[in-house]
Amino acid sequence: MAERKRNSSALPSSLALLAASVLLATACAPGGGAGGDGTTAEGGELDGVELLVAAKWTGVEQRNFEQVLDAFEEKTGATVTYDSTGEDTGAYLGPRIEGGDPPDVAVLPQPGLVAEYVDQGALYPLQGEAAQALEDNYGDYWQRLGGVAGDSYGIMIKAAHKSIVWYRPEAFEQAGVTAPTDWDEMVTTTAATLSDAGSAPFAMCGASGWTLTDWFENVYLSQAGPDAYDQLIAHEIPWTDDSVVTALQTLNEIWDAPELMLDGTDGAVNTGFPDCVSRVFGQQEAAMVYEGDFASANIVESGAEVGASAQAFPFPAVGDEPPVVVGGDIAVAMSEQEGTQQLLAYLASPEAGTTWAELGGYLSANSNVPAEAYADEFTRQLAQTILDAGDNVRYDLSDQVPSAFGATAGSGMWAILQDHLRDPGDPEATAEKLEQAATEAGQ
């Protein structure tokens, strides 16, 4: 294998609820896969070709992705080097683009970056077998996420399910509560009863501003609906719209109730991710924490067992349907080097997705990755939720708007929602600040 550069069980009670809560719409359109049987197209011999791939992953995520790249090397004869961008993808890619030395394939953590780099002339559209693999293996929504002005540039190679709430069943049992099925039940019954029983209901992750955007997105998608969600992303409706104010008022049912948050408001705004997870499952100071499926790694590090001492329920419905908000990472071509499009085609194939799924810590939006590839029933159910949501699934809103507004620490949505958590008394004023920041960022 090529030497790579390295920068330093089932959930029975939750799964029944999860399955009942996510029957939203028809599944993404099926397809035949790259080559139909999980193989890439003929003529993929790439002996002597060297490719550089850059993504944010480090640690176990990097090691798992490198195993996928190893499989591509074995299949094609190419040599693939991996480089970690770290968390600030733009800071890594910017100088390389300006210097004319970008990686051949970059994995972008935000769809908004795809459009930004297309505007800079830094990306090449998907061609040939890569374009075909996208069409064969992904539903329409996932195809659109990597597109700009009708052209396909990116492939969602790794997804994250951001509409689940983790909880300690022991705390629920002691308080005599069960997993809620809607928002009102979660607030007025589950959380209130836990609080009365002397258990802090929620460990908030407010020091990490992105977690607060996730709260807002789930409430807004369920309450206002997918059409309004899309219009807000496109800034076709302003952030001062009544639907935004209503969502902030709904969030205040928790954010403006210090007794429902571990250590009250101060604890909520001063605890970040993943410390909020360990305070539930390690120190056992609170009963619940909201964040995506990726929190499972931190849960295990805290000494809890997913499916036993750590379980999850779907983010409860605020409106007619429960939300299904996803995040993920999009692979794009930044060069015309031979092998680049073949690598993208492989990453879009069921074969690559199956290899990755078997390693764990992974969800795929690829319709043709078989359910049995996932190691446990809980992960299989989460993956199926993403696919079954069909037209009702939506990608993380803050990652689809300009990064200066939606994905920058200390400014934009992150800072404004942190301020709102700190002092939630005026949702209208918060909406005004969001509108001003969006406008200034060019949304």
From TrEMBL:
Positions of region (Disordered): 422-443
Signal peptide: 1-25
Keywords noted in UniProt: Signal, Transport
Pfam family name, one: SBP_bac_1
Keyword Electron transport: no
Keyword Calcium assigned: no
Compositional bias annotation for Basic and acidic residues: 422-435
Gene3D superfamilies membership: Periplasmic binding protein-like II
Family: Belongs to the bacterial solute-binding protein 1 family.
Protein name according to UniProt: ABC transporter substrate-binding protein
